[in-house]
Amino acid sequence: MAYGLEVFNSAGTKRIVGNTDRLLRLVTHGTVTVNRNSYVDIAITGMANDDSWTVGLNIALFSGFVTDWYYTKSTNNLRIGYNTSASTPASQSIPFYVFRS
To answer: Other CB atoms closer than 10 Å to residue 20's CB: what's the count?
Structure first.
């Protein structure tokens, strides 16, 4: 008999984490510079827009509001964008981390 924690989605229909899963592994990381009201595309082999991929953005205290930054996962691609109407620098650098469960 196996013991452990299992986590399901809110409907209880899909197991998200089970007792045999590796919880997280770092796929890639780096720093990109994004111009104001623009985005940068980063090629990441195998990436998909699903629950097994997680993105972390390391937003510095004075690099704009958290809501000014966004990311979009798609097939083999991560898009990091910076939208703001505030008087911020013309470009900002942001470290990112991509994990897969």
So the answer is: 8
HSE toward the beta carbon, residue 41, CA cutoff 13 A: 7
Output phi, psi for 28, to 5 deg: -160, 165
Number of domains comprising the chain: 1
User: What is this structure's pTM?
Assistant: 0.72
Query: Which carries the bigger pLDDT value, residue 91 or residue 19?
Result: 91
Q: In a 10 Å sphere around its CB, with 0-12 CB exposed, 13-18 middle and 19+ buried, how is residue 98 labelled?
A: buried
Let me know if residue 52 belongs to a domain.
yes
Domain, as residue range, for 78: 28-100
